[in-house]
Amino acid sequence: MKNHAWRPLWLAIGLIAAVLTARHFLVPQDFGVHGDSFTYNFYRLGAVQFWEDFPDKYQGRERCAKCHDENAEANATSKHRNIQCENCHGPGTGHPKQVKQLPINSSRELCLRCHEYLAYPSSLRSQLPGIDGDTHKAGKECRKCHDPHHPDLEG
Amino acid sequence: MSCSRRDFLKQSVAGAVAAAAVPAACTVIFLEPGEAEAAVEGKKLRWTFLVDTTKCVGCGFCVDACKTENEIPYDAPVSRTWVERYVVTKDGQTHIDSPNAGRDGYTTGEIRGETIDPADIDKAFFVPKLCNQCDNPPCVQVCPVGATFQTEDGVVLVDRDWCIGCGYCVMACPYGVRFFHPITKTAEKCTFCYHRITEGLQAACVQACPFGARQMGNMEDPDDPVTKIIMTERVQVLKDEYGTKPSVFYLGLDERVR
Q: pLDDT digits over B162-177, tens only?
């Protein structure tokens, strides 16, 4: 072949080689097909590790009960037994070492999430004990009358 | 073009050798039945999610917990999971809303500034939504860089270091579960709380739900209580017609829920 044909060919080969070399160093070693499907399982293995190592925030009531056993036992028999401690007390991560006192949410709005009466047939919501938040002791914290750990309607 | 007999023979032999080398390099391996079973044996985990809409009261604790657990900016208008409210009135209209993704619960009967008379309501209910962790995830198919993928246990994750932020996946998801993380500026989605479930904990939303409306299980284990419900009761998935094969199943879904 003539020189004028070889020159662009060498250029093209050189470019391809450069791209492949750069790719070899830029693409992480753990990038590849990890599974059956090229379409769905083509990824960097380190990304799975990243998500596995993501820090937990909510610890669960079992951990709370290790120290606050009196509250946990009392709450276990109340109507609020299915509510996690951390739903009102905030996530327990770092408690008690770094975070001495968890920020307790004692607002009316928290209680009204379930106890604002909504007349919704075919929904469990209408079967919960509910009030009209605008007229029932408006602006007052619910816990002033109702104990959240032993809820009753007497107040 | 001329070609001597010697050259012709030389090239023929070289060609034959090259042709034989190709299949030798990519040999198809046929496994014995026992070996094939052993290869599949490792796949004993496939996460599945069950939402019982009849139990949801719209308290929004799940959304609240999800945002905190997964470090999604609390007041940004994005969320990995959300709760929708459906109110069907007697005139046949369906009123749907999800203020703040349902994060603060539903504490008023007002929907989009409209007050609905309880006497006009035929039915009303809440539907929690999250990523369906599809078996055929369209969001993964469209990613041009391999930054989103399906793990071996069936969870679709995003590689934050690899995502270029093109947004194709956000457009491709028929369920609208993807968004851009306001801080990392990469595609973001529900991970089934991958960091928790791989440690044996419950997902944050599952743990936070006081009514058991959200549950998780292992599809590969026939004795799993959640799998049993999915296999024996009448469950539904969202947008079945898209062929995405969701891993999130719903009990008590209404035809108005899309």
A: 999 999 999 999 999 9
Distance from CA of B141 to the nearest CA of A (A): 6
- For A54-84, write each residue's pLDDT tens digit: 999 999 999 999 999 999 998 999 999 999 9
Q: Does B57 touch chain A (CB under 8 A)?
A: yes
- The residue type at A42: F
Using CB atoms within 10 Å of the CB of residue B214, give its burial: 0 to 12 exposed, 13 to 18 middle, 19+ buried. Answer: buried
Please check the confidence at residue B37 and state whether its pLDDT lies above 60. no
Q: How big is the CA angle at B141 (ends B136 and B146), to the nearest 5 degrees?
A: 125
Residues A82, B211: C-beta atoms closer than 8 Å:
yes
- Phi/psi region, residue B167 (left: phi>0; alpha: psi -120 to 50; beta: rest), is left
Across chain A, which has 155 residues, the per-10-residue mean pLDDT values are 87 97 94 93 96 96 94 91 95 92 94 95 92 92 92 73
Task: Give the rounded distance of the alpha carbon of B122 from its chain centre.
Answer: 32
Residue ranges per domain, chain A? 3-52, 56-104, 106-145
Comparing CB atoms, the residue among B68, B109, B126 nearest residue A57 is B68
Q: Give the pair of three-digit tokens for residue B2.
A: 């001329």
Q: Do B219 and B227 touch, CB atoms closer than 8 A?
A: yes
The distance in angstroms from the start CA to the end CA of chain A is: 99
Residues whose CB is less than 8 angstroms from the CB of residue B57 and which lie 6 or more positions away in sequence, other chains included = A114, A123, A124, A125, A128, B126, B211
- What span, in angstroms and rounded, lies between the C-alpha atoms of B81 and B128? 7
In chain A, what residues touch B257 (CB-CB under 8 Å)? none
Distance from CA of A84 to the nearest CA of B (A): 6
3-state secondary structure of B198: coil
Task: State both tokens at B25.
Answer: 């390099």
Does the pLDDT at position B112 exceed 90?
Answer: yes
Q: Phi, psi (5° rounding) for residue B172? A: -75, -30
B105, B195, B208: residue with CB nearest A51: B195
Give the SS3 label for residue A78: coil
Q: How confident is the model at residue B80 (pLDDT cuts 50, 70, 90)?
A: very high
